[in-house]
Each structure stands twice: as structure tokens, then as C-alpha cells.
């Protein structure tokens, strides 16, 4: 984790957590606090910010200092602590360009005035002036300047998160509830400046915030502070504590607030708390998206920052890497570890040590699991019986356990996201003939079970068959695979890697080998899924594909399901496809029609282009209205979707001809794990 976010109120915490990706929770036995963890985009799509968020139990500066200190001790990689939430605005009727209104966003770009930290002289208490400005994160200040530039161009990157259609809780209260009182009498607001203003959106202000240990509900005291500090825009209760605590820990801080009231009694209520909280959180998300990834501190190996290691651990790892055999397939281990990243330079894959050095510069994921640790574990697993393999796995397991990510590492090594969990898999790659569309070439691959994903070609190589002969060819391949799996005790799966034109074939109902005089459909004995050959061959969509797949792996699952278009018009489709591309939380798409129809095919390719890894549909060209219920029952949390799909297919088979419309008979599942590519990434043949 490189970013810490503190909030004081439940409404503020809810706003922050709702805008994180891959949300999880974390608890350290030595820290009584419970944290939310997640990621937020950075300027580098391959290196998002790791974020830890915490809600304080009390809203004052001393509590803020305490919670901030705990946070950076629990997450030593945190470089910046951001305070996000609401504040009281300081109105300036005489200077419209500095006048704040309810819902506006205030950035403490020029520091904090701790107005309750005073010097007593000559019978008067005088605030000690602006403090802690020098510790503001310079990277976030630069990003805030870039957002200012975007605003001058008419772009508001944070505004998309305040769209009620996307975030219903962020609905802006009516404008007539923004009432400003002067001496208890309502007064009109000055006109908004043209620059930096857009109807219905908050303005973003940059300046000074007042910070104190008292809840400001005093118009006279507020105005006296405003007169003393002409650039003070808002007043809050935690910032000075965070500034002091981060200074003691040699970290930077930042603060963003949404204006929820005017710090006076006549108009103070909670009506704007929800929107102001979301406005501040939305701005922080956009701010971090403009900020390069922050490397966490660590002991260096080969010039790159590794996860924090004691000297003895670092020496142990270097010794293990020196003992590796020469014939190590670094590329295969890399692809199994970080398939969502672009293919690195040959120098990075030249040696295991070079790959570790490169991965060491990346952030850990939301579970605290670092990709360098995963790589080392997979490297050990790839060595089979070689003695150093077990030692590498043990080293990685110890590092993951110390980071609280032991379960996450076990899940990653198990490769349970495939159709058969960690069991054997038969991949049948199907390529249609460019001239004879009724002919195709099939190439089978076998994955023997757990360990790194390294499917190998089945002896005998590719075969050319007519499309009408695919069922017979598949039956023979399954029989061959079973001969190779005689020692396996795990459930097996079958993946058909097919071009879009064949995806609607009923491959799950192909009959398997005839045994003891009986030949059953494949879906009774195997988990059967289809995969997109076009996407496997197109590396330019692999990054988006890998990013969305993280939603599937996240615990708890926070992804979303997008149903196909309801209205068959070009504008409706364009709006649907734009929504799909813009929101990477969509991990599952349910097509409105099968891919054999024009609209279903367009939806399919839009989902493949956006990187959606899981796609469901009813194979019938004219889908009955009641099939939506069956698809909807499958399209919840997708982690067990292959197993659930197999169950409903078995139920449909058991129902037989009594229920020809059973959804299990017609459901098709594209389950496309980007970590499970064929031998040459991007070339599926």
C-alpha cells in the first residue's frame, strides 16, 4: 500500500470505499483498527495505487494523529496520507471567485492554519500561523494542477463519479437548499465565475484550510478567521493532526474536503453531508489517476525496490536465485504471474533475477500480495522435484504470511479460476479455414493439473476436420486426454477456444467417449466453457482483459453485471457500449441475444474489446422472455460460475424432454481467464 486515506464519519468512509476498486478488508493483530484495502488507477495502467482506508472513531486532531500513526506503522509502504471528508465553508460574498458554496470541493493546496494552536501574548491569544505546508505531497499538488488545466479546457474527470445514474447516493440536493445566512438572515449568493464553473457541478477551490479541535458553529469566529487569513476557504477538525503525525513518520499529507455547511448555526444541518462526501472522494480518485504510482520503501536487490526485507531474507533469496538451474522458463512463469502486463523487454525475461528486479518496482495488490512474491512461488513450483524449488516456495510463503497474504498466495498458486479449479484441463483450439468456412483445424492441448499454467500440445498435432465433424473429433480428444489423466483425482475441465462464428455451437452437449455401452454429454462429466480465439490472438486488449479479471479474483467480489441492450437502435447500442468501456467494474455481460444474431454478435465483440472476461447468453436465436430469470440466477458473484453452470446443465439433462425450455439446456458460458493463454501469448495456434 502506498496511499493511506483517513475519514472521520461513516458517510465519508462509505464514499471513499464505494470508489475503490478490488475492495477487501485487513486487520493486523498488533493494530486494533480494521482497514479497507483496494486499488485506484495511476498514470500507469499496469501499476495502480495500493490504498488502505480507515475511519476514525472520533473527529478531532488528536484522534487523527493517533490513527495516522497506526496506519503508517501497519502499512510501512504508505507514502502519502490523504484526509478526505466534509468541512464548513468560508463564504466570501465580496470576492465571487473565492466564494465557496455547498457541495464545492476544497483542496488544501496552500497548507493548514491550526487556529486552536495559539501563542498567548499581552493578554491575547494569537494563532501561530500557517503550518505544515512544506509537507504537502508535491506529486499530488502537481496532479491537482493538471486537474485545474483540465477544468480550464472544460473537462471534469471527477464529475463522472457524481452522476446519479452511476452513484445514486451521490445525488445533489436541490439548489434551493443551499442557503447562506448573515446574522441569521438569508442572503443571495454572488454569481458564479464563468471559469471553473459548470451547471450542476461543484467548483474546485485551492487554498488554506483552518483546522482546530472544536466544531466551528460560530459565524463571528469564522469571519474573524476569514479576515485574518484571506485565502482560508474551509474549516475542519483533523488536518493539523495528520500533518503533525506524517511529519513525525517522514511521510507527506494531502487534504480534500467537500463543503457541507457554512460553519454557523442558522443553516447548519446534515442535508449536504452525503453529496459533499462523494464530491471529495470523487476528486481524490481523479487526482490519483493523474498521479504516477508511488514506489514503497524497501531494501534493494539489484537496484530495484523489493517488498520490505530484512537483510537475512534478502541474502537468502539471492542465494536461492544463484542455485537455479540454467533451463528455467522465465517467460512462462512471468505470464502466469502478471498476464495483464504488456510483454516486457527481452532483458527483463533474460534471467529469473532480472524478472524479480522488474516486478519489485510494482505495487502489491489489494490483499497485500506482491507480484515479486507470486513470481518466486511460481518459479519454485515450475522446478518440479529440483531441491531449490521447494525452498523458493517456502521463502515466498513466509513472505506472504508476514504480509497477511498467505491465503491470497495459496489462491493464486491454486489457479482455481479455471473451469476445473486446479484439476486437469483439455483445451481444444479451433481455427476456421480462411477459404472453406465449413472446414476447421483443431489443435488440442493438455494441462495436467496444478502448478504453473503450461499447457502442452497433445501428441499427434493439429487435425483438419469439417465443422460438422467437430463433435466426433472432440470425443476422440477427450478419450485421449483421459488416457493421460489416469493418475489424477481432481475434477477435469474442457475449454473450447473458438472464433466468434462458432461460439454458439452446443459444445457442452457434445457426446463423450462411449464407455460400457453408454455415451453421455460432456457437461455431465466435465465443466465445459468456451473462450474467444480472437481475443487470445489480440495482445492490444490483454491489459484491459487482465484488469477486469481482477474483479473475479477479488474477495469480496465488487464487480458488476451488465445486461445487453433492451432497445434495438444504434443510439441505444452506442450508449450501452460506451458505458461498458468506461466502467471497469463490469466483469460479467449477459447478451440480449445469441451471438448468431446481429445484435448479439455486436454485443459480444463490444464485451471482448472492453476486456470483459465472463459472458453469458441463451443459445436460442429467439430467446424466450423467461430465460432472463435463469441467466440472472447464474450471473451473481462469478467465482463459482463454471460449477453453477455445470449444475444447471445436469438438472436440464435430468429433466429430459419434460422440460425442453430448461435454462440449463440453453445457457452458454464464455469463461476467459487471461492468465491461461496458450503456449505463445497472443497466438493461439
Automatic annotation (TrEMBL):
Domain of life: Bacteria
Boundaries of every vWA-MoxR associated protein C-terminal domain copy: 441-674
InterPro entries: Nucleoside_phosphorylase_d, Nucleoside_phosphorylase_sf, VMAP-M0, VMAP_C
Segments forming domain Nucleoside phosphorylase: 2-269
Sequence ranges assigned to domain vWA-MoxR associated protein middle region in this UniProt record: 310-412
Protein name, per record: Nucleoside phosphorylase domain-containing protein
UniProt organism field: Paractinoplanes durhamensis
Taxon lineage: Bacteria, Bacillati, Actinomycetota, Actinomycetes, Micromonosporales
Amino acid at each position: 500500500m502506498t496511499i493511506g486515506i483517513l475519514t472521520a464519519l461513516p458517510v465519508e468512509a462509505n464514499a471513499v470505499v464505494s470508489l475503490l476498486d478490488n475492495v477487501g478488508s485487513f486487520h493486523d493483530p498488533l493494530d486494533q483498527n480494521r482497514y479497507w484495502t483496494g486499488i485506484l488507477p495511476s498514470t500507469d495502467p499496469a501499476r495502480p495505487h495500493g490504498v488502505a482506508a480507515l475511519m476514525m472513531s472520533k473527529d478531532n486532531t488528536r484522534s487523527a494523529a493517533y490513527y495516522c500513526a497506526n496506519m503508517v506503522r501497519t502499512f510501512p509502504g504508505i507514502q502519502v496520507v490523504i484526509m478526505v471528508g466534509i468541512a464548513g465553508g468560508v463564504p466570501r460574498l465580496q470576492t465571487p471567485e473565492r466564494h465557496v458554496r455547498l457541495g464545492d470541493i476544497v483542496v488544501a493546496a496552500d497548507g493548514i492554519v491550526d487556529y486552536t494552536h495559539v501563542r498567548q501574548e499581552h493578554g491575547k491569544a494569537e494563532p501561530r500561523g500557517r503550518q505544515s505546508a512544506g509537507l504537502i505531497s508535491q506529486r499530488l499538488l502537481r496532479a491537482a494542477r493538471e486537474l485545474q488545466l483540465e477544468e480550464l479546457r472544460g473537462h471534469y474527470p471527477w464529475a463522472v463519479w457524481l452522476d446519479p445514474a452511476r452513484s445514486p447516493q451521490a445525488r445533489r440536493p436541490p439548489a434551493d437548499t443551499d442557503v447562506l445566512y448573515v446574522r441569521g438572515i438569508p442572503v443571495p449568493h454572488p454569481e458564479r465565475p464563468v471559469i471553473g464553473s459548470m451547471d450542476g457541478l461543484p467548483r474546485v477551490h485551492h487554498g488554506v484550510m483552518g483546522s482546530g479541535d472544536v466544531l466551528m458553529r460560530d459565524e463571528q469566529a469564522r469571519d474573524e478567521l476569514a479576515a485574518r487569513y484571506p485565502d482560508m476557504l474551509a474549516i475542519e477538525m483533523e488536518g493539523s493532526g495528520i500533518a503533525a503525525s506524517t511529519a513525525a513518520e517522514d511521510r507527506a499529507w494531502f487534504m480534500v474536503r467537500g463543503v457541507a455547511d457554512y460553519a454557523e448555526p442558522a443553516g447548519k444541518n446534515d442535508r449536504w453531508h452525503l453529496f459533499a462526501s462523494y464530491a471529495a472522494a470523487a476528486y481524490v480518485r481523479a487526482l490519483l489517476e493523474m498521479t504516477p504510482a508511488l514506489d514503497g520503501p524497501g531494501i534493494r536487490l539489484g537496484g530495484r525496490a523489493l517488498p520490505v526485507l530484512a537483510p537475512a531474507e534478502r541474502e537468502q533469496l539471492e542465494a536461492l536465485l544463484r542455485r537455479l538451474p540454467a533451463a528455467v522458463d522465465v517467460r512462462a512463469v512471468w505470464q502466469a504471474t502478471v498476464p495483464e502486463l504488456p510483454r516486457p523487454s527481452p532483458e527483463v525475461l533474460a534471467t529469473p533475477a532480472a524478472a524479480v528486479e522488474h516486478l519489485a518496482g510494482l505495487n502489491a495488490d489489494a490483499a497485500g500480495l506482491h507480484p515479486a512474491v507470486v513470481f518466486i512461488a511460481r518459479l519454485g513450483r515450475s522446478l518440479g522435484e529440483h531441491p531449490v524449488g521447494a525452498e523458493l516456495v517456502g521463502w515466498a510463503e513466509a513472505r506472504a504470511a508476514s504480509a497477511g497474504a498467505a491465503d491470497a498466495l495459496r489462491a493464486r498458486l491454486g489457479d482455481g479460476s479455471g473451469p476445473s479449479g486446479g484439476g486437469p484441463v483439455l483445451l481444444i483450439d479451433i481455427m476456421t479455414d480462411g477459404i472453406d468456412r465449413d472446414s476447421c483445424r483443431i489443435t488440442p492441448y493438455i494441462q495436467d493439473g496444478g502448478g504453473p499454467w503450461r499447457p502442452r500440445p497433445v501428441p499427434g498435432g493439429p487435425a483438419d476436420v469439417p465443422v460438422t465433424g467437430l463433435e466426433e473429433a472432440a470425443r476422440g480428444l477427450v478419450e485421449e486426454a483421459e488416457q493421460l489423466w489416469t493418475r489424477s483425482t481432481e475434477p477435469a475441465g474442457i475449454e473450447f477456444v473458438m472464433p466468434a462464428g462458432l461460439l454458439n455451437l452446443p459444445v457442452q452437449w457434445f457426446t463423450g467417449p462411449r464407455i460400457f455401452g453408454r455415451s453421455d454429454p460432456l457437461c455431465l462429466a466435465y465443466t465445459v466453457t468456451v473462450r474467444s480465439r480472437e481475443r487470445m490472438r489480440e495482445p492490444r486488449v490483454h491489459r484491459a482483459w487482465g484488469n477486469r479479471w481482477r474483479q473475479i479474483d477479488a474477495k469480496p467480489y465488487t464487480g458488476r453485471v451488465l445486461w445487453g441492450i433492451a432497445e434495438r437502435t444504434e443510439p441505444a447500442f452506442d450508449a450501452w457500449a460506451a458505458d461498458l468501456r468506461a466502467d471497469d467494474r463490469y466483469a460479467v455481460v449477459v447478451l440480449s441475444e445469441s451471438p448468431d444474431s446481429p445484435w448479439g454478435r455486436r454485443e459480444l465483440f463490444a464485451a471482448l474489446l472492453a476486456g470483459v472476461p465472463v459472458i453469458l447468453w441463451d443459445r436460442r436465436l429467439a430467446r424466450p422472455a423467461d430465460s432472463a430469470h435463469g441467466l440472472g440466477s447464474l450471473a451473481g458473484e462469478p467465482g463459482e460460475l463454471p460449477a453453477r453452470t455445470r449444475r444447471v446443465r445436469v438438472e436440464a439433462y435430468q429433466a429430459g424432454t419434460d422440460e425442453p425450455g430448461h435454462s440449463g439446456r440453453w445457457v452458454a458460458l464464455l469463461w476467459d481467464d487471461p492468465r491461461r493463454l496458450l503456449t505463445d501469448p497472443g497466438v493461439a495456434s
